[in-house]
């Protein structure tokens, strides 16, 4: 099972590179993503056995992130079936600055998507800290060509920034991994950096080196996760990547980086110094929320608006993880809801961009009449992402607030609620203004695949809010028990 | 062990040269020299490793990649650009040198404070690792050109390599990871090639790129 999960997207990517016809490449991707999704669903019924000497295994945390990833890839691939054939392969003027540009080859884009899925799957499966590091690095490599799909100046700059900032982060995370190795040095039989080994022998871990390891891992993987103050790459990459890629970056990649941080947190927890990593996560979470909220208030670009909202929600996740078991449960739930709503919104943003040929909020008006489905879903998405009922985010944001009080941190709760309020104002100001007003003259019909993926994602978000399945709650509780410091 | 100390001192001196040079060709040469020295360092520390063929393989591969492949790639990437030196860095070259001294003091103090984990780790090895990493980070933040940023990343990565040698007992783990990071860097530099071939910009000054993007908004 585990080898298949990795092999399917990898092989599909390689085959896509070898295939000439664009439609066949897309069919390959769709098949791979469907097979991957089916495998992930089967993992919920029958958990696969660990492989490669325990280096790869699927625990609750991994299953959680893997499922989000697989669902989002399914939605993004459906969207791509409509989006990619529309993309003109030739040179054409950029609508923002008029310079000519062309796209990266179709095969490269499709293959990179498949490799990106494989890399994210490896992140979710890896139990060995070195493998984890390699996997996170692989996500950077696989996603950089995706951001650089439209080969114009701005995406070039965004890709450059993404590579430089994330590579430096990755290098620091490697140092953190070395420090973790040092922390195990007191005991000769702890040869491998396998999570289970480390958790089973906490007494042999040197707390001083562990703390240092966590700090470096937090900075390194935190960069990838988009936590402030290391979020510089995130708005640019999300704004310039094709919208379906932005959806995957925001909904899948950021969670995968968070998983890497939580793996280190697990080790610290086992060694009895979980309070240290917890407090760091708490403060970083609050900082990210405040920084993002202030940028949300002044944003005039709707894709950047969504990107800063991701920084804010990553702050919520970090805060939740910093609040102990109850907080981890809320954060896990929140990760699901955020990914669903944000991916839906990014896909819709792609439709808006295609219709209005601008990312500037003031130049988009009358969305609900110009693009009825997209417009209605955009407003629904706004409600979902700001945590209005009946969407799942309402439940999980409330749960994080409760966890703040349960952990006796009323100050954190106050900052958290303030940031949520500011974000609500910022997002509302931008997103609702786009829905209202005079729509452009000629109406166009909307393709089913342009809005259906977003509709389905939001529908799942509502279901998670109203009647969460017992199996999902069980896994979330188990995850909270394993990761959260009670 | 004296020769490994000589190597480390040379690596530190090269860090200072990297901080104080403006010409891209000189920067590339210093980083390349550092790469070769790292390979030699692996050999010099090699007696403490378990299997000798692994030591040789690692030494040769790392010296070859860092000393020859990456510099060649970088040279090719910058061949057609008419600017061949760092103009107007955020922090001037003499100021950078002074800053380097501060960083060096900091690294030594840090290395002295930390408990030494393995027989390989000497204070000098650990402090050179920290110092080289900090120099890389400094180049990444204090310079404007994309070339200096790639070099900063290369130097940072050399520091990570040193840290790997200093911190892990048997080294296979750190070493294999280091090589992977190297491959990554190769791709990374290909990025700059694409960047350059794209010829969207007539300059490699990253500040100018950002400014250009802002004006369009």
Polypeptide structure, described:
The complex is a heterodimer of chains A (486) and B (217). Helices cover 76% and strands 2% of the residues of chain A. Chain A has helices at residues 2-18, 22-45, 60-86, 106-125, 129-147, 153-183, 195-200, 207-225, 233-240, 243-270, 274-297, 302-321, 324-356, 367-370, 372-385, 392-406, 410-435, 448-466, 470-483; strands at 92-93, 100-103, 150-151. Chain A has a 3-stranded antiparallel sheet, covered by helices on one side. Chain A is globular. The relative contact order of chain A is 0.10. In chain B, 47% of the residues are buried. The chains are: A mainly alpha (486), B mainly alpha (217). Chain A binds chain B through residues 96-97, 99, 130, 133-134, 137, 140-141, 144, 148, 151-154, 156-157, 159-160, 163-164, 167-168, 170-171, 174-175, 177-179, 181-182, 185, 191, 193, 206, 208-209, 301, 360, and chain B through 115, 117-118, 133, 137, 140, 146, 149, 153, 156-157, 160, 163-164, 167-170, 173-174, 176-177, 180-181, 184-185, 187-188, 191, 194-195, 198, 200-201, 206, 209-210, 212-213, 216-217.
